[in-house]
Amino acid sequence: MSEPISIQFTRFSAFYSPLIATIAGGFLEAEGFAPQHSVAPAGTSAIEGVVNGTVHVCQSAPSQGFGPLEKGQMPPAMHFAQINEMDGFFLTGRAADPAFTWPKLAGKKVLVDHGGQPLAMFKYACHRRGLDYKTIQAVDVPSGQMDAAFRKGEGDYIHQQGPAPQQLEKDGIGKIVAAMGDIIPPVAFSSLMATREFLQTPKTQAFMRAYRRSLRFVIESSPEEIADAESGFFPGMPLDVLEAAIARYQQLGTWRLDPGITREQYETAMDIFLYAGVFKERFPYDDVVVHFA
């Protein structure tokens, strides 16, 4: 009999294809799992499900562990594998701008995703491109409402994960002018998280076998093949839009075969959060991350 496994996403986009494809590509099923997936309701962290036992594995970010550590508490669960080593957000303007430079954002209304990590990374991207973040009009709209707001005419630019920007392009509403992954160095961006108890069970080794195969699939397969496998997870999304997002993520080098969260990329994430002023001290890698060989 198949073993149930519950997976929850904090956000759901093509950016998380390595985790989506563990289900869509049948890799978890091949390991004897009956996977179920969900997306955390707005205002709720997927980590809550992990802690209360209703979720086995959740999509999160190593930076999630910084908050408890700042309060002198150990994180309730550990980050054990990387999903993305690049920032997966794009900046979309109202029109194509082949000569776009970041200083052009000064004085403009930008719908910036104000989630803790996306905002910190956006501020760091501004820094790396010589733009004072305070000179832009950063509009704070809940992430789930940003796309609709931009479509209604709010803002000059919008900051989103794929495939939303690719859909805006297809609909003739905007044009991508920059990718954060071209600006921010490789970083511990998104991760898989589970309790210490779950990580000590044979389920974890089976999950990791499936996950490694999924990583290879999304790195080495064509965007068309990946999009075809995942299309059922994006109802109403045109296949060519999903393909375009996946292709762009492949070009950026978003995913890598080794799922380990490296110390170097963890420290880069720490650097970014310190720069953004979210935290004032460094937190130990081993308090947040566990590495599977």
Order of helices and strands: EHHEHEHEEEHEHEHEEHHHHH
Give the CA-based shape: globular
CATH class of the largest domain: Alpha Beta
Percent of sequence in beta strands: 15-25%
First-to-last CA distance = 28 Å
Summing up helix and strand content along with how strands pair, one would put the structural category as alpha/beta
Give the rounded overall mean pLDDT: 94
The strand line-up of the biggest sheet is 2-1-3-10-4
Key features of this structure:
12 helices, 293 residues, D-Maltodextrin-Binding Protein, domain 2, five-stranded mixed β-sheet, alpha/beta
Give a nutshell description of this structure.
The chain is of the alpha/beta class and 293 residues long. It has twelve helices and ten strands.
Overall description:
This protein has a 5-stranded mixed beta sheet with strand order 2-1-3-10-4, with helices on both faces. It has 2 domains: 3-86 and 187-287, D-Maltodextrin-Binding Protein, domain 2 (3-Layer(aba) Sandwich), CATH 3.40.190; 89-182, D-Maltodextrin-Binding Protein, domain 2, CATH 3.40.190.10. Strand 6 (109-111), helix 5 and strand 7 form a beta-alpha-beta unit. Helix content is 38%, strand content 17%. The mean pLDDT is 94. The longest helix has 19 residues, at 202-220. The protein has helices at 17-24, 27-30, 46-52, 66-70, 116-128, 143-151, 164-170, 196-199, 202-220, 223-230, 239-252, 263-275, and strands spanning 3-9, 33-39, 57-60, 78-84, 89-93, 109-111, 137-139, 157-161, 175-179, 190-194.
